[in-house]
Write a structure and sequence with these properties.
Blueprint (H helix, E strand, L loop, with lengths): L1 E9 L6 H4 L34 E6 L11 H8 L4 E4 L4 H9 L3 E4 L2 H10 L5 E4 L4 E4 L2 E4 L4 H9 L2 H17 L1
Parallel strand pairs: 1-2, 2-3, 3-4
Antiparallel strand pairs: 1-5, 5-6, 6-7
Helix pairs in contact: 5-6
C-alpha cells in the first residue's frame, strides 16, 4: 500500500483532540461529515490558508492527539482525506485509533520531522506502508509500525481486519 500526496503542516506540540475536532460536534456516531470542522479551534486554522487538494499527510510535532480519548478525531482527519500523520509522538489512545481506522501513525525524530516538513513544501510525500519507508525530497526515512496493527491498516481498519478472519473462524468451528 502506498500513499502519495501533499502535506498539511501543523508544526506545534500538544495538539489535543478538542483542537482536532471540537467536542460540540461529537453528537453523532457517523464517521463522515466531521472533516469540515477539522482543526477549527486551532489558532489560525491551518486549513484556512492551505490548498488541501491532494494532501494525504498531516505533519506535526510531539504528543499529537492528547487530551480526551475520542475516535472522532481520527474520523475527522480521515474524512478530510488525510491517510497518515507524521509526528514525533502520539497520545497512546489516538495512536490506537489511527491503527483501528487505517490512518498510518508515523513516528520519527524531531529532526526528521522538521526535515520532511521543509522538503514537503516543494515535494510530495510517498509512504510505502508495506516496507515502512517514507520518501520526500530524494531522501528515505524508515519508520516502525506494530506488525499486527499494520495488518489493520492494510485491511482498511480493525473491523475489516476482523471481517477478513471470519472464514478462518468458521473453518475452525466446523472442525
Amino acid at each position: 500500500m502506498k500513499i502519495i500526496g501533499k502535506s498539511l503542516q501543523i508544526l506545534s506540540s500538544n495538539i489535543d483532540t478538542d483542537q482536532i475536532i471540537p467536542a460540540r460536534y461529537l453528537t453523532g456516531i457517523s464517521k463522515t461529515g466531521l472533516g469540515v470542522h477539522l482543526f477549527e479551534d486551532v489558532p489560525n486554522n491551518p486549513l484556512d490558508a492551505f490548498d488541501h487538494e491532494n494532501a494525504k499527510v498531516v505533519i506535526t510535532l510531539e504528543n499529537f492527539g492528547c487530551g480526551s480519548s475520542r475516535e472522532h478525531a481520527v474520523w475527522a482527519i480521515q474524512d478530510r482525506g488525510f491517510q497518515a500523520v507524521i509526528a514525533v509522538s502520539f497520545a497512546r489512545i489516538f495512536e490506537e485509533n489511527c491503527y483501528n481506522n487505517a490512518v498510518v501513525p508515523i513516528k520519527l525524530t524531531s529532526q526528521e520531522v522538521l526535515e520532511i516538513a521543509n522538503n514537503a513544501k516543494t515535494h510530495d510525500i510517498t509512504i510505502d506502508v508495506d516496507n515502512q519507508v517514507l520518501s520526500c525530497g530524494g531522501k528515505d526515512y524508515n519508520f516502525e509500525l506494530d506488525e499486527l496493527k499494520k495488518e489493520f491498516i492494510l485491511k482498511g481498519g480493525f473491523m475489516k481486519f476482523l471481517d477478513s478472519k471470519v472464514p478462518q473462524i468458521k473453518a475452525w468451528l466446523a472442525k
